[in-house]
Each structure stands twice: as C-alpha cells, then as structure tokens.
Amino acid sequence: MSYEKPLPRIDELSRPFWDAARENVLSLPRCNACKTFHTSMEPWCSRCGHEGATWERLSGRGRIWSSCRFHKLYYKGFAGDVPYNVAMVELDEGVKLVTNIVGLPNGTLDEMPIGMLVEAVFEAVTPEVTLVKFKPSASGTGDVP
Amino acid sequence: MEFDFKPSNSVAVAGVATTDFGKLPQHDTASLGIWAFREAVADAGLTPADIDGVVFHRVEDYQKFLQITNIAPRLVVSATEGGRMFGSSIQVAVQAIMSGAARTVALVYGNDGRSAGARYGGQDDSYGTGSDQFWAPYGMTSPGAVHAMLHQRHKALYGTTEEQLAAISMTFRKHASLNPKAVLQKPITIDDYFAAPFICEPLRRLDYCLINDGGVALILTSGEHARDLKQKPVYVRGMAQRSRFASGELPEDFGYAAMQDVSKRIHEKSGLGRSDVDSLMIYDNFTPIVVFALEGFGYCGRGEGGAFARSGALALGGRYPTNTNGGHLSESYMQGWSLNVEAVRQVRGDLGARQVQDAKVVQYLQGGPMITSIMYCEEDR
Questions:
Q1: Do A69 and B200 touch (CB under 8 A)?
Q2: Are residues B150 and B13 located together in one domain of the fold?
Q3: Nearest residue of A to residue B156 by CA position?
Q4: Cα-trace Rg, chain B
Q5: What sign does the dihedral B118-B120-B121-B125 (CA atoms) show?
Q6: Is ipTM strictly over 0.90?
Q7: Does B141 touch chain A (CB under 8 A)?
Q8: A94 lies in which domain range?
C-alpha cells in the first residue's frame, strides 16, 4: 500500500537530517562557536551570529513542551488517524521538534502531559524517509513543564 | 529616533467604511477595496482626488483599483496577505502624513477569503517556517493548531481553562448580536461552546475566527486638515510595534516580553495610561491570543488573562468593553481592520446599542507576531 501522508520536501540543506534519520540517528546542525543546536539548516547561528555549523548527533531524549490533537482532517493521508496527536518536544540539548507521540494507550492529550519525558523512535515510512517520533521514556514522567 | 505624537503634528482618522461581510463572489479584493474606499472618502466629506497616498493590504490587483478610482497618489505601498501586516500598513500611513510624504492617505483592505476558498492549514499552506520539512509529515499544520498548543501550555503553566476561552467567545458573540453587519449574531451559551466540535483540541470551532469576504477602508490625514472635514476627528495619539518573529511560531513567553515593550512605548507616546482607556479592540483570530494580549499589555497579571476575560471586564457594561463589533470571532475575520474602524466609531460615539458610554480613548492590541498597539482618542492632547 502506498504511503499517503505528506512527505518532507527534502532539499540539499536538509538532506543530512533525513540521511541520519534513515540510520536511526537524530542529528541537527550545531553552531561551531556557541554550540547551540538549531532546526534551521542555514549556516548562520540565530543565537550568536556565527557562520558555520556542524551536524551532530543528539541524545533523542526530551520532554513534551506542548501538544494538541487534530480532529479536523487537513491532509487526506491522515483520514484513518483522526483524531491524532502532535507534540512539540524540547530535547535535552534545548532544541524543539514537532512530532507525534506514539506508544500511548489512546493517544489523548491527558496521556501526554506537558513535561512528560520522552525518547526518540524511528519510523521508516518510505525507502527514503524515516520519521522521528517520540514515545514515553522508560525513566518516567517529568513534573516540571 | 521615534516619531513624536504631538498636537502640532497630529494625525487623525477622518473617514471610515466597512463593506458587507459574508459571501460576496461578485467581488475580488480590488473590488472590495474600491467599495470600502468610496464609502470612506464620502464619510470624510472628501473626493477621491483628495487622496494622495494609498496603502493597500491584501488587495491583489491594486493597479485595477487605481485605474477604476482614477486617482494619482504620490505614495503607493502594498502589503501582502496576512493579518500581521495590518500594523505595518497603518504605521506607514501615519508616518507618511507626519513626514509630509502625503497629506491624506487611504488605507484599503480587501479580503475575498471565503469566495476564493482560502484555507488555513493543509496542502499548500505556508504557515510555519520550515513547515514543509518538519510539520506536515507529522500532520502539524495551521495557525489554529499553533494556538491550540500555546493554550495547552498556558493551561499547564497558569491554569487557564476552556471555560475562560468560552467566555471570550460568548462575550464577543453577544456584542455581535448588536451589530447588524456581523456574520454571526445569535448569542451562544457555554453549552453551545462545549457542544461545538474540536478542530484542533483543546480548541473548538467557537475558538476560531470566521473567514469571509469583505473590505475596509480608513482615511487618515493631519489633525489640522481633519478638523475642517465632515466628521469629528479621531486622533491617532500613538502607535508602537515590535516583531516577535525571531522567537518562532511558538514563543516561549507567548510574546509577553515584546508586548510589554510595545505597551510601555504606547503609553509613553500617547500620554494615556490604561486607566484612561474606555474600550479595547483585540486581534482575535483565535481565543487564546486574547488571553496573551491582556497579559502582555498589562491589563491583568501574568497568567491571569483567562480569569480576567471571564470576570466580565470585556463585556459591554464592564470596565473594558472589548471587540464591540463582535471581533474576528463573530463579526468577520478582517485581520485587524474592522476592529480599528470600530475603535474610531466608538470614539465618534454613534454606535447605538453597542456604544460604550462616553468613550474617549480606545486602545487596539495585536498580540503577535507583529505586535502592534494603537491609541485612538477624541482629543489631540
């Protein structure tokens, strides 16, 4: 069965992210000067202004910064999933990613409170694309948002 | 250097107009703009030839507009789609008048979102930097979902509730019931709010604004000129802006720091404090942004916006009647423009059933991402 959900528009700048994800590694550009991780693939650091970043591996551990649950269908590929959750996860390294939380009994917002500890899981959806999703961490639930 | 808002160089609103709102398929954005422009010029007691500057917002074919209105302004600026460009548009107009670049500027807005089938979210939506890479594959899309996440976090940090959001929706709807032009006029109950389906949980349909067709125009000129015209002048006593785009679509502080800066500057510039304000107009594409704006602009303590909204303060008869036309939630999503017309009409004092008694000062608040505030006042000092 073909994969019907939106796929990332992979370009030259973002290719390293998706190449790493296919190897089950979470990797992002990190400023060579101030060592801040970014989700922007451009070489300029929004924190210190330095030009130059290096792709580095992240721990894959973080906590839920916020979440929501789509009931309205915006992409037909999600027709079998509504309502489905989307979360913003703040990684231990300080950078935030939009993702889905998997491994919950029902996937409700109550099951994914803000502050909950999560860790990355890798879901190959096509031969080219592996999505980085998150599941509740074995080390339990955080209590500080 | 910032522009000084002083009586010797004052700017006033001399004319305003709003078209009908709803489904108006016979009009494109230029046509909606022309409709509003002609009425606003007449409202001011001017003719189109008196207009020597035009600032367009969301009017796609401004060339057609200028051909049909047959005017030759000295200044033409066009801002793209997106309510965020409201404040920038009006700022250009105010500064053009203050600097002498133009004497009388028309601000013209046209929105054919309903007939054109404008969609916020889904395929081809461009909301969110990098959304085609990092949002869409996870099903994340639309400004509404961003506000859902912001509210969800605000709720966890401060205890804001959906009952409080419902109060905002219900209050503005009640105001809309007094506005014959509002798209939705039937009052709603708390049961109606909770019976409405989730769009992006925790937000429901009644937390979302109404996409419609419509046009809005304002005529700005010098205070000196406005005093010779048909209407009572309504002075722009101050305006201030600050971008918070740098902090992304989901700012850690809900835009608080940038709003505090804009708030401080607008009170300094206008010489008018919150205690002088009789009514508020708050950009309300979604209910949570009203909560954030009330906090950021200091109308309540941080984290208390929900409780403040539910206290009745925003209702007609309350301390700060807000969005007396029904706002974007119940009148129509006119991206800030009709809220500013409503501010002017409140100061003029001719709004009938929804008139705020003795309204002299009305403050406009836009909580993001181009944070804006404008102070409208019946006096120039």
A1: yes
A2: no
A3: A114
A4: 19
A5: positive
A6: yes
A7: yes
A8: 59-145
